[in-house]
Amino acid sequence: MADRISFEDWMQSVQTTMEETLSTLLPAATQTPERLHDAMRYAVLDGGKRVRPLLVFAAGVLFDAPHAAMARAGAAVEMIHAYSLVHDDMPCMDNDVLRRGKPTVHVQYDEATALLAGDALQSQAFTILSRQEIDPERTIQMLQILSEAAGSLGMCGGQAIDLASVGHNLSLEQLEQMHGLKTGALLEASVFLGCLCGRFPGTDEARALQAYTKAIGLAFQVVDDILDATADSETLGKTAGKDAADDKPTYVSILGLDQSRALAEKLRLDAHQALGLFDEKADRLRQLADLIVQRDK
Amino acid sequence: MADRISFEDWMQSVQTTMEETLSTLLPAATQTPERLHDAMRYAVLDGGKRVRPLLVFAAGVLFDAPHAAMARAGAAVEMIHAYSLVHDDMPCMDNDVLRRGKPTVHVQYDEATALLAGDALQSQAFTILSRQEIDPERTIQMLQILSEAAGSLGMCGGQAIDLASVGHNLSLEQLEQMHGLKTGALLEASVFLGCLCGRFPGTDEARALQAYTKAIGLAFQVVDDILDATADSETLGKTAGKDAADDKPTYVSILGLDQSRALAEKLRLDAHQALGLFDEKADRLRQLADLIVQRDK
How many whole angstroms separate alpha carbon B92 and alpha carbon A2? Predict the structure, then answer.
C-alpha cells in the first residue's frame, strides 16, 4: 500500500475525517429551525460504521482522488443513507425504536420532525455534492449517480419492493433484485463517487468496479440477514430477530444459515476476483470486502 | 411580447408542455415497483396550476432560454413541490385527505407508499436536473439552488417552523420568515432556474429578480391565507378553513381580511416595481404577479 498504515488505522482515520466533515457540512443545532437541525445531526453524527464513505475512500485511493473531494462525496452518500434509515424506522415503515444503540429519530423527537429531518438530509446531500470543487463534468456525473441510486429505480424502489414482500415468498432471484436496489445501488454509487473524485474510469475499470460492488452489495445483505438471525440486539445496536418477527423473506429463511454463510464467502471471493486487473492500490477495496463479510455487527 | 399570444394561451401552452414533460420524465406505472411509480405519477400528474414551472418559463423567456431546458427545470422544481405536498399531507404532518380535489396519496395508497413516493420524487428532481443538456457550470448552479431551496434552510425549514408555530402567536415578521422559507424559497429557485436555462444573470438583474420573488412569494401566501378563510373546499380542491381549525397563525388571523387584501395588492405593485429595469420581455413575470394576487383558488 502506498500509505503503509494498517487497515484498522486507515478505517479509523476515514471515520474520523467523516465525523468532522459531516459535522461541518450539517447546519449547526443552534441555527433556526433548531429542533430540525438537532434531529438531522442526531441522525447522522456519532454512529454507524461509515461503510459507504469507506467505499468512497477505498475507490478514491485507487484513482488518486484528492482527500477533500472524497470527504465531501462520502458525506453526501452518508446523508442519503442516514435519511433512509430515519424514514425506514418510522411507524408507517419498519416501526423500529432502536438504531445504533440509540432511540430512533421519531422516538427521540417526533414523527413530523423525523419526516422533515429525512427530507432535509436528502436535499443536503445534493447541496454538498453540487458544491464539489472539482471538474464540473465529473460533479454532474456524481449528482446523476447519487440521485439515481437514491430514487425509485434504486434505494427507494428496493424499499418499496421490500415492503410489498412482507408475508410473501420470494425466490432467491427476487430477493437479489430487491437488495440490489435497496442496498446495492447506494454501495455501487459510493464506489463510483470515489473514483469520479479522481477521474472518469475507463470501460474495463468501470466493469470491474461494477462486478465488485455487485458482489459486496449482495454479501452485505446476506451477512445482515445472518446477523439478524444470530446476534443479539445489544451487539447490533438495533432490534435483532426483526425480519423473522416481521415475516420478511431473508437469505436465512430461504437458504438456511449454513448455505447463507457459504454464499457470503463465495461473494467475498467474487469481489476479490473482480479486482484482478488492479494492483495493490485496490487493497482497501479488497479489505473492505473482507470486512463486510467477516463483521459481527 | 415577442410571441404575441395572450397570457391565458401562454399559460395553457406551458401547462400542456409540463404535463407532457412530467409524464415523460416520471417512470412508467408499468415499471417495477409499479405501486410506487403509480403513486409518484398520481402525486404529480393531472393537477395543480404549475405556478413554479410558469415562473421558470416566464423568467426563461426574459433570458432567451431554450424551451427544452425550461421544461426540464420546470419538471424538477414541480417534483420537489409535489413531493412536499405528499409529505405535508401525511397524518404526522397536516393530516389532510383532499388535495387538488382528489384523495391525498396516503389515502389513495397507504402511508408507507406516500413516504417513499415523496422521497423518490425528491431524488428524481435532482436526476432530471443533473441531466440538463446545457453548460455544466449553469447546471451545477441550478442543482445548488434547487437543493438549497428544498432543504432545512429553505422549504423543509419553513415547514418545521410552521409545525412549531401551531397554537403560538407569531409576529408578522416571524410569519414572513416562515413563509419566506416554506413557500418563497422554491418560488425564488423557480425564477433563477428559468434564468439560468438562458445564461448567468448580471448583478442588477439578479437583485431585481430577488426583489420580485420576495414580493410574489409573500403575496402568494397572503392570498392563500385569504382564500383559506373565504373560499369553500370545492373551489380550492383542498380542505378550506383548515388553518383556523388547526389554530395556525395566518395573515388573516394577524391582520384581518381587509388589511390582508391591501397587503396582497401592495406586494403585487412591489413585484411590478422590482421589474422596472426590464423591457416587455418581462411581461410574463408581471402577468404572473397579477395572477398570483388575483386568483380565486
Answer: 51
Cell of B242: 383548515
Domain boundaries, chain B: 7-294
User: Is B152 within 8 Å of chain A by CB?
Assistant: yes
**A98: β partners:** A103
pLDDT of chain A, 297 residues: tens digit per residue: 456 799 999 999 999 999 999 999 999 999 999 999 999 999 999 778 899 999 999 999 999 999 999 999 999 999 999 999 999 999 999 999 998 889 999 999 999 999 999 999 999 999 999 999 999 999 999 999 999 999 999 999 999 999 888 778 888 888 889 989 999 999 999 999 999 999 999 999 999 999 999 999 999 999 999 998 887 766 666 666 666 666 778 899 889 999 999 999 999 999 999 999 999 999 999 999 999 999 887
Residue in A55, A22, A40 with CA at minimum distance from that of residue A186: A55
Residue of B111, B280, B140, B292 lying closest to B214 (CA atoms): B292
**Residue A100 · residue A297 · CB < 8 Å:** no
Is B136 within 8 Å of A131 when comparing Cβ atoms?
no
The CATH topology of domain A7-294 is Farnesyl Diphosphate Synthase (1.10.600)
Task: Kindly identify which residue of chain A lies nearest to residue B177, measuring between CA atoms.
Answer: A32
Rounded CA separation A138/B218 (Å): 38
User: With an 8 Å Cβ cutoff, are B156 and A32 in contact?
Assistant: no
Within 8 A of B150 by CB-CB distance, chain A residues are 119, 123
CB A10 within 8 A of CB A61: no
Cis peptide before B201 (omega within 30 of 0): no
